[in-house]
Amino acid sequence: METHSISIPLLSLLPFVLMLLSIAIFPLVWNHFWEKNSNKLIIAIILSIPATIFLLSSNLGEHLYETLVFDYIPFIILLGSLFTITGGIYLSGDIEAKPSINTLFLGIGAVLASFMGTTGAAMLLIRPVIQTNKERQFKVHTILFFIGIVANCGGLLTPLGDPPLFMMYLRGAHFTWFLKLFPEWFFTNAVLLIIYFLVDNYYYKKEPKASIQKDKTNIRPIKLEGKINFLWLAGVVLSVAFLNEQYLHFIEENEYYKFIREGAILSMAILSLLFTPKLTRESNNFTWEPIKEVAYLFLGIFITMVPCLLYLEVNAHTLGVTLPHQFYYYTGLLSSFLDNTPTAVTFHSLALGLGINTGTLVAGIPEELLKAISVAAVLFGSMTYIGNGPNFMVKAVAEENNIKMPSFFAYMYKFSLIVLLPIFILIQLIFIGW
């Protein structure tokens, strides 16, 4: 069906707006209610009902079906499988918390984030980082940079790294295309690591001598358990890279053949469950609740965003967003305060609606626009605690370990606005252009 012949009323966008506002506001003002995943599912279903009724009554049910089957299901299978596999890898130990060691931890996290996902890398490394630094008095800055690097900016190199990139992959960007974002990935993470090293060096010199001495004497070697899960993780990487139309041309004959990839990814998760000792997952405090939360919330997001995506495709020419830097900053702004995955999908639809058919097209839109959307969605997800899923998870683990983290707004004015934003502006000036 040609979207340009459809009339989409503005009122139909309200459920999507309310869904995103729920995710942004409820954890801050109605936290006890929002803690229960069953309540998240109730909100998702309530807001999905009017969107579903509108789409079905307007003969737009096929768009809803395609979104749920070819976007939501692959999205949940990938995230669920990465969550399952990385939950079977347990890293323990307590080594000396020198600035060089801490910087190395974050640097390793920046690399791992692109291949095991920002959530997987963050959950694998956050407890060892906290354990390593437990004797030090000044450690809040380490957690803040951890959120910026490991939970966000590190995930820019592959579609496994961050959900917005996987959504762009599902829309036609090849696995290897994301490697073109290496300059942005390297620049961002290198600058952040250098700044972190200098900051940590400053605080290390301020540490009481007793704390440093205690840190040097309480040493336990780093120990890695559940190493077989790296094999299943490699299976997921290879499945996403090679089980697609680019290499399996018969998939083009029937779009349902795409689920060969999802079948392979799911089998890796099952193998992880079968071959990982239960004790390893227990050591990781592994539960299914975080992935249930993602599944429930994104069910609501994917359903309610369909009218919004159709509206943007129909009205793209009237909104005045046409240039790479505009896509970069608008995507970045919304990724900071809402969720970066629906934001990326929304601006991809806006770019599609521009109807540009000249130049190099990737995922149906000009390559420079896709680059602006992808980079902004991943990087700006670190601007607030709610920009990307792992941010709140890292904050929660830190607070469980008696590390007093900044409030929602303090995080911004003490860290993201003064450290992250200037780097992201430099990224736009150097790599995205005007």
Describe the structure in brief.
This protein has 18 helices and four strands. The chain is mainly α. The model has no long low-confidence stretch (mean pLDDT 91).
Average pLDDT confidence is 91
Distance between the termini: 34 Å
Total DSSP helices: 18
Strand content: under 5%
Structure description:
The protein is mostly helical and 434 residues long. It contains 18 helices and four strands. It has a two-stranded antiparallel sheet with strand order 1-2. A two-stranded antiparallel ribbon has the order 3-4. Helix 4 crosses helix 7, helix 10 runs antiparallel to helix 11 and helix 13 packs parallel to helix 15. The longest helix is centred in the N-terminal third of the chain and has 34 residues.
What does the secondary structure layout of this molecule look like, with pairings?
Layout: H1 14-29, H2 31-34, H3 37-57, H4 61-86, E1 90-94, H5 99-132, H6 140-149, H7 163-170, H8 182-206, H9 209-217, E2 220-225, H10 229-242, H11 259-275, H12 278-283, H13 289-315, H14 324-337, H15 340-353, E3 361-362, E4 365-366, H16 367-380, H17 389-400, H18 408-432
Antiparallel strand pairs: 1-2, 3-4
Helix pairs in contact: 1-3, 1-13, 3-13, 4-5, 4-7, 4-10, 4-11, 4-13, 5-6, 5-8, 5-17, 6-8, 7-15, 8-18, 10-11, 13-15, 14-15, 14-16, 15-16, 16-18
Q: Which terms summarize this structure?
A:
434 residues; mainly alpha; two-stranded antiparallel ribbon; 18 helices; 3% strand
